[in-house]
Amino acid sequence: MMSDPRMKSMGDDMAFDGKRMVYGGFAPMLDEGPGGKLGYADGFVAPVKAGNKQAYLDMATKAAVVFQEHGATRVVEAWGDDVPDGKTTDFKMAVKAEPDESIVFSFVEWPSKAARDAGWAKIMKDERMQPGDNPMPFDGKRMIYGGFSPVVDA
Predict the structure, then answer these.
(1) pLDDT digits (tens, 9 = 90+) for 126-152
(2) Dihedrals φ, ψ of 39, to 5°?
(3) Residue 47's beta-bridge partner residues?
(4) What is the pLDDT of residue 102?
């Protein structure tokens, strides 16, 4: 990418500090739902022990059904495949990943922020989302998440 001459000129007038940009490559593990016009997205980043990959996928697969029943149009879960170490920050630093952990990047697409807010209210009350006797396959205290309004949907 950096060998592309167009990238050189982009740096001259970037609207953000590229030194603090976090980037990486992720292999999809789960991609459920047709998607559609993106009105709002929830994004999640979590550290998951390599040995918990299947347990995480099992949990995510069950959760995707619940999300879609409550209005989400698409749920994507992706396992870190090319997540470089940064100088200022990176995905691993953001979640305080330990050496035996990989990074999972997930997003949930919604038709609108109103649909997302209504959906989350139902999701949090849904019995299937209660942890029960099964421990979480990742440390939820180190997960980062947020809601995002689309700027570009190409």
Answers:
(1) 999 987 777 899 999 999 999 999 998
(2) -105, -25
(3) 103
(4) 97
| Residue 78: Cβ within 10 Å count | 18
State pLDDT tens for residues 5-52: 776 666 667 677 667 778 888 989 999 998 888 899 999 999 999 999
- Residue 130: count other Cβ atoms within 10 Å of its Cβ: 9
Q: pLDDT value at position 23?
A: 81
Distance between CA atoms of residues 146 and 144, nearest Å: 7
Angle at 28 between CA 84 and CA 10, to 5 degrees: 50
Rounded to 5 degrees, what angle do the CA atoms 43, 47, 49 make?
140
Torsion angle of alpha carbons 148, 27, 25, 81, nearest 10°? 130
Read off the tokens for 127.
């019995």
Q: Are strands 101-110 and 40-49 parallel, antiparallel or unpaired?
A: antiparallel
Residues ≥6 apart with Cβ < 8 Å to 71: 110, 111, 115, 116, 118, 119, 122
Query: What is the mean pLDDT of the segment spanning 58-74?
Result: 96
Is there a contact between 143 and 45 (Cβ–Cβ < 8 Å)? yes
